[in-house]
Design brief:
Length: 196
């Protein structure tokens, strides 16, 4: 009777069966994992559920679903910004009573405005994104929805030149009256700066 070497038997064992690729060369989803779009993979189940509710609330605005890291995100048309924000605040399913932040990002071919909305009651956060052209960046002001939008909009106006239609007064917040250019934009000539 021959003794078997455990290392030899492992090396001769057949490789475990792997899932056969589907017709497009992709592995088929397993029953325990429901397929989700790649842009939603970073969301928890609660985040996906909240995103679904948000999509239902904004169904008339053709909002595009996505995620920003682990936060549910909707991309909307710039002209609908104030209406969507007002609905987000008033609708009891969302209750976005707080504007956490408004940021502007320069992608050279467009400026993107990113609104972080928060529900104090449910502790849910929703990100709204909208884009405007850099040569005529106009979006409705949300100061009528959240007064906290005042300084955020003035900052985006100072640094990126975004015109917030309906804002009570876009006076400079960070820069001085008469400052030329928009230092938040990628094409601003910082290399022309000279120290005294």
């Amino acid at each position: 009777m021959e003794e078997s070497n455990p290392q030899e038997s492992d090396s001769e064992a057949p490789a475990p069966a792997q899932a056969e690729p589907g017709p497009a060369g992709n592995e088929e989803p397993t029953p325990e994992s429901s397929p989700s779009p790649p842009e939603l993979e970073s969301l928890s189940q609660a985040g996906r559920d909240f995103l679904a509710v948000s999509q239902e609330v904004f169904k008339d605005f053709q909002a595009e679903a996505g995620s920003l890291d682990n936060l549910p995100q909707l991309t909307i048309d710039a002209k609908d910004t104030a209406l969507v924000c007002d609905l987000a605040k008033r609708d009891s399913r969302l209750g976005m009573k707080q504007l956490l932040c408004l940021a502007c990002v320069d992608y050279e071919d467009h400026l993107q405005l990113v609104y972080f909305l928060h529900s104090l009651e449910t502790d849910n956060t929703l990100v709204l994104k909208t884009s405007v052209p850099p040569d005529n960046p106009r979006v409705p002001s949300i100061t009528g929805v959240w007064q906290a939008g005042d300084w955020y909009e003035r900052e985006a106006h100072d640094l990126f030149g975004v015109e917030f239609e309906g804002h009570p007064g876009l006076t400079p917040l960070l820069l001085y009256e008469g400052f030329e250019g928009y230092p938040g934009r990628k094409d601003f000539p910082f290399n022309d700066y000279q120290e005294f």
